[in-house]
Amino acid sequence: MAQSTDRKALALGLLAGAGITLAVAWYRRTKKSNSSISGVRSLTQFHNHLKTSGSGGEWGPLSPRQADILEKLNELIRGLEEVKSEVQTLKEAVPRLEERVRRELGAERSPRKRGSPGHTASRKRKRSEWAPEDGEGDAAAAGDGSPSSEEVESEGGYITAHTETDEESEEALVKCSTVNIAFGSSTQDNQTSEFDDLMQKADNLHGSPELDKKEGFRLLLEKKEQFWDQVEFLWRLARAYADMHDITFDVEVKKNHAVIGKEIAMDAVNLGPQSADSHMWLAIICGHLSEHGSVQTKIKNGSLFKIHIDKAIELRPQDPKLYHLLGRWCHAASQLSWIERKVAATLFKEPPNSTIQEALQCFLKVEELHPRYSKTNCVYIIKCYRELGQTSNAQMWCDMAASFPDTPEERETQEELENLLSLLKQ
Question: What Rg, from alpha-carbon coordinates, does the chain have?
C-alpha cells in the first residue's frame, strides 16, 4: 500500500511541475463544451487524445517532454483508479465487519482473535500510511495555484468515503469491544461455576466411603495448577490428604500423606489467615503427624495442633467439631508420660498441659451445641467420667452411646465402648 501511495504522489508531483499547462488547457477546452465528465474520466480522455494525436493532428507531434508527461499521466490515472477501487472495497467490507465479529465470537474461537488495543494501533498505522508525507501536499498544490472543480470533487469524495469508513469501523470496533467484555464476563462466570461445582463435589466425596474419598483426592489433584491460589481449594486438598492418611495402611505412605498435607494446609493458612477450615485441617494433620516419629516430633506437632485449633474456635465459636478436637487434645495432654512432660518442658517455655476436667468440658460443650453429636464424642465423655471416678455418669453416657446405630466408620469406637462397659461392670 505504501509503495502504491508513493507512486501516486510522485505522479501528482510531476504532473503539477511539468504538465499542468497541458492539463489545464485540456480542462478548459472540456469546460467550454459543458461536459459533466468527472475528473478521472477527463484525464483519461486527455490521455487518449495525446496517444492518438499524430504529426498532422490538432496538437501536432509529441515532443520527448510531452511523451514523458503522457507516461506520468498514465501513472496518475492508474493510481486514481486503484484509489477508487480501494475505497469501494472498504465501503463493501465495513457492513460485513460486525456480522463477521459476531460469527467468530459465536463460534467461541480463541481469545487471541478478539479485538484488542493492538488491532486499533494497527488500523491507525495503516491510516497514517495513506496520508501524504510532509511536503507532498505543498508539491501537489504548486502549479496554477488552484485545483479544478473535478479534482476537488474527486478528492472530496475520497475524503468523505475515507471518513465514513473510519467512523463505521470505529462503531464496529466499539460493538466488538462490548461483545468482548460480555464474553470475558461470561468466561469468568463459567470459571466461577466450575470452581463452585468442584468444591461441592469434593465435599460430597469427602463424606462418602473410602472409594469416593480416593476419587475426591484424584479430582482435586487434577485441578491443583488451576486453583492453587484459592483458599477454599487449598484447605480441601489438605483435607483430602488427611483422608488418604486415614484410609491408607502402609505406615510410610500414611506419613508421606500427612507431611504433604501439612505443607498444603500451611499454604492455606498463609493465604487466608481468617479461614477457620484452614486452621482446623492444619491442626488435624499435625495430630496425624504426632503419631509418627520421636517424642520430640510428637510434642512439636501437638503444640501446633493446640495453636491452630484455638484459632479456629476463635474464628468459628459455634462449631461443635472444633470443641471435640480440642477435647481430644486436652485428654491426650493429660495422659502424657513423665518422659514426655520432661521433653515438652525442655522444648517450650509453656509445655502443653491440660486436665481431664478440661477435656470433659470440651466434650460436653459439643453436646450443648449439637445434642447426640456422635458415638465417638459419647465414648470420650465416658472415659473422662470413669477417670474422674464418676461411675454413674459414665454409665448414663454408655446408654446414650449404645443408642447410636452401628456403622462401619465407627467400628473401632464400638469396640472401645464395649471395653468401657466391661470395665464399668467390674
Answer: 44
Please report where in the chains the cell 491510516 appears, as a residue: 127
- Collapsing DSSP states into helix, strand and coil, what is residue 397? helix
pLDDT at position 282 is 97
Q: Mapping DSSP to helix (H, G, I), strand (E, B) and coil, where does residue 128 land?
A: helix
Cβ atoms of 31 and 65 within 8 Å: the answer is no
How sure is the predictor about 49, in pLDDT bands with cuts at 50, 70 and 90? low
pLDDT at 175 over 50: yes
Calculated CA dihedral for residues 171, 177, 181, 183, nearest 10 degrees: 100
Rounded to 5, what percent of the chain is helix, strand, coil?
Answer: 80, 0, 20
Mean pLDDT of the chain: 74
CA distances from 112 to 101, 104, 191, 417 (A): 13, 11, 18, 64
Retrieve residue 423's grid coordinates.
470395665
Q: How many helices (H) and strands (E) does the chain have?
A: 18, 0
0.90 cut: is pTM over it?
Answer: no
pLDDT single digits (tens) 241-252:
999 999 999 999
Burial class (CB in 10 A: 0-12, 13-18, 19+), 395: middle
> CB pairs under 8 A, 24+ apart, for 260-264?
261/285, 261/288, 262/238, 262/286, 262/289, 264/234, 264/237, 264/238
Q: Locate the DSSP E strands across 248-362.
A: none
User: CA 307, CA 162: separation in Å to the nearest integer?
Assistant: 72
Instruction: For residue 48, name the pLDDT band (cuts at 50, 70, 90).
Output: low
Q: What is the pLDDT of residues 74-116, one digit of tens each?
A: 777 877 777 777 777 777 766 666 666 666 666 544 444 344 3
C-alpha cell at 78: 492508474
How far is Cα 382 from Cα 361, in angstroms, rounded to an integer? 12
